[in-house]
Amino acid sequence: MSLFIRKSMASLTKEAEETGEHTLKRTLSSRSLLALGIGAIIGAGLFSLTGIAAAENAGPAVTISFILAAVGCAFAGLCYAEFASMIPVAGSAYTYSYATMGEFIAWIIGWDLVLEYAVGAATVAVSWSRYLLELLSSFGIHLPKMLVSSPWESVSLSDGTIYESGILNLPAIFIVVLLSAILIRGTQESSRINNILVVVKVFVVIMFILLGWSHIDPANYDPYIPANTGKFENFGWTGIATGAAVVFFAFIGFDAVSTAAQEAKNPKKGMPIGILGSLVVCTILYILFAHVMTGLVNYKEFAGDAKPAATAFAVTGYDFLQTALIIAILAGYTSVMLVMLLGQSRVFYSMSKDGLLPKFFGQIHKKFRTPFKTNMFFMVFVSIFAGFVPISDLGHMVSIGTLFAFVLVCIGVMVMRKKMPDLKRSFRTPLVPFVPIMGILVCVYLMYALPIESWLRLAIWLAIGFIIYFVYGKSNSKMRNPDKYPPDDKHEIPEDIPPMI
C-alpha cells in the first residue's frame, strides 16, 4: 500500500463515538476548553521569552513581534477550528493529517508534535524552576547550587545570587513528575485544577498591566525599533521577524485544545470556542503586557534574564506584591505544563491506536480512563530535557516544531475542501484558500527567521522519526496491515478520499 494511505471519515466518526472503559472519557465543557487554551498559552513565552526576544532581537518593538506572531496564529487557528469541529478525535494535527495527506505525513506531524508539547513542557519547567528559586531567595532559602541548573547554563537572581553550571535542574524535574501524576488521576480533575490556575494567571497579567502602566518611562522606548547590527536576527525589521518566531512559542496552546477533542462534551461547538477564543483573549493581553514590560525597564537589561516580568515589576515600588506576583506566575506556569503534558499523551495515544507506536502508549487505566503509561513515559522524557537542556535552545526547538505543524494543518484544509467539499463542517474557515495560504506563508517566513541551529535540530529530530516509522510504524500500521488485526481492532480502509499520490 502507498505510504500516503488515509483514514476514512467513516472510521474517524466511529472512533469519535466509541465508549467504554478502553476509551477516553468526555468531561470537558466549552468553558473548560477555553480555559484549557488560555492555560496553555499564557506562560513561559510571555513571562520569560518576551524579555529574551526584546534583548536579543526586537527591542521595545517586541510588541510588533507579538502582533506578527498573532497574525500567523490567527490564520492557523481558523484552519484548526474547522478540522477540530469536523474531526472530533484525539490527536490534533496528527489525526487531521491522517485524514487528508496520508499516513506518512501524519507520522511526521505526530513526531513533530513531540517538539511542540513535550519539549514545550520542558521549557516551561526550566522557567518555573527559576521563578521558584527567586521565591525561595526572598525568604532567605537557597537550594544546593549543583541541583538547580543544567551543566550548560547559570542562573542569576535579583538579590545577586548566582548559580553557576550545576549537575541537573531538580526543581524542574520535580514539577514534571508531580503534574504527570495529576494527569494520570483523570482529565476532569486536571481540568478543575487548570481552571483555578487560569483565573490566578489572568489576574496577575491584568494586575501587572494596570499597576505597571503608570510607571512607564518613555525613554525606554527610544529607539522603538533599534538599528540592525548587521546580523539578520539582531534588531531592525528583520530582528522583529526573528522576535516573532521566538515569541511564537508564547501562542502555542490553542492547538492543544484540539488534542482533547475526544474528551469534550460537545466538540463541534466547544472546539472553535476553545481554539479561537483563547487566541483572541491572549493576544490582547500579550501586546499590553509586552508594552508595559519594555516601558518599565530598558530592553538591554533583559539579556539572559529568564524572569523579566519580576525584573520589570521590581521598579514599580510595589515590593509587597512582588512575592505574590512570583507565586501567581508559578501557578500560571503550572497550568501550561499541565496542558502540554496532556496534549502530548493524547497524540501518542492516537498514534498507538493506529498501530504506529507500541500498544503500551494506547493502554487506558481502567479506573481513571487516562493513557497512564504514556503519561509515565513522558514524565521521564520531559524530565530529562527539563533537567539538562538550556531554556533558549528548548524555546527555539518548540517554535520551529509548532510552525511546521501549523503549515501542514493549513495545507490539510485546502485538501479537504477540494476532495470532500460537501462534508458537514460545524465551523468553516473563511476565505479559503486565502486564509490557509496566508497561514502557510507567515509560518514559513517565521521558520526562516529562526536560527540555522533550529533547522538542524528539526532535521535531526525528523530523521530519528523516519527511522522509527520505517523500522516499526510501517510494518505495524493498522491501515497498511489489516490482516494482522481482528475486525474490531482496525480502521476501515478508506474509499471516500481519492489518493493524492
Question: Keyphrases for this structure?
Answer:
two-stranded antiparallel ribbon; mainly alpha; 501 residues; Amino acid/polyamine transporter I
Draw up the topology in text.
Blueprint: H1 9-16, H2 30-41, H3 44-58, H4 62-86, H5 93-100, H6 103-138, E1 155-156, E2 162-163, H7 170-185, H8 187-213, H9 236-247, H10 267-296, H11 308-313, H12 319-353, H13 372-388, H14 391-419, H15 434-449, H16 452-476
Antiparallel strand pairs: 1-2
Helix pairs in contact: 2-8, 2-10, 2-12, 3-9, 3-10, 4-9, 4-10, 4-14, 4-15, 5-6, 5-14, 6-7, 6-12, 6-13, 6-14, 6-16, 7-12, 7-13, 8-10, 8-12, 9-15, 12-13, 14-15, 14-16
What would you say this structure looks like, in words?
- This protein is mainly alpha-helical.
- The protein has a single domain, classed as Up-down Bundle (Amino acid/polyamine transporter I), CATH 1.20.1740.10.
- The chain is 63% helix and 1% strand.
- It is built from 16 helices and two strands.
- It has a two-stranded antiparallel sheet with strand order 1-2.
- α8 packs parallel to α10.
- The chain is globular and about 65 Å long.
- 57% of the residues are buried.
